Amino acid sequence: MRIPKPANPKAQADALIARGRALIEQNRLPEATDLLNRAVKLYWAAGDFYSAAAQTGNYGWALRRMGRADLARTYLEQAATIFDDIGLAEFAERHRFAANDVASVLDPEFLSSLPPAVRGALERGDGEALQFALDALPVAEQQIIYERLTAAGVISDAGEEQAESAVQQFEPLLQAVAAVARGDESERADVEVALEDLERKGWRVRRPVEKIWAGERRPGPLLYGLDPSDTAMVQRVLDILEAP
Question: In this predicted model, what pLDDT tens digit does every residue of 28-57 receive, in sequence order?
């Protein structure tokens, strides 16, 4: 009798998040919230604390983009707390600032300065109408309004921003990883300790780094299955190694 392998909690969580995104686009927030809560529990079970924080924060950002600043605060604050717990102070501060600044997003003065269709979509919390209103603007005005909404936190590519922030925060470590790959073993022990610490906090870069140290340089095998921030960090190491 074959015993089935236990399901991968992280894979299950990722699938729930993907389903949740589709529900958010359909404005089915109660169902999306339920999937998020289930996914976060699975991330915790898998020891992937970074994803638990990031996906909680992403939900908050999504609510802001929909004009639901009233609902976004809780998720942004929760994300900030988790980021603090895993030692990512910069990420925590960004989410905490957004949570505390939520009220200003729908400030009457801010809303009155926007084109009527954009303002109406935000007031109704209609994400689809907001996108339609932005697309209908002349190109020059569209860029200006997009930048204003981004600055206010209504529109945010949180995943990309977090990936960039991760690379900046860990740049010294990534440089040290590359140095070991080039044959400098002087800091290897310290780097290994740092990578193990990151793994305990939910990052997944230790194994790709070990493959790089073993000579692997192909992005496919190194980046497969990583989230955007882990991907950006490993890719940064490869970029350093490619530089003359």
Answer: 888 999 999 999 999 998 888 888 988 998
| Contact between 42 and 13 (Cβ < 8 Å) | yes
Domains and CATH numbers, the chain: 9-99 (1.25.40.10), 108-151 (no CATH), 166-242 (no CATH)
Position of tokens 């921030």?
229
Q: What is the mean pLDDT of residues 105-122?
A: 79
Q: What is the DSSP string of the chain?
A: -PPPPPP-HHHHHHHHHHHHHHHHHTT-HHHHHHHHHHHHHHHHHHT-HHHHHHHHHHHHHHHHHTT-HHHHHHHHHHHHHHHHHTT-HHHHHHHHHHHHTHHHHT-HHHHHTS-HHHHHHHHHT-HHHHHHHHHHS-HHHHHHHHHHHHHHTSS--HHHHHHHHHHHHTHHHHHHHHHHHTT--TTHHHHHHHHHHHHHTT---HHHHHHHHTT---HHHHHTT--HHHHHHHHHHHHHHH--
Structure tokens at 42: 């699975």
What does pTM read for this prediction?
A: 0.49
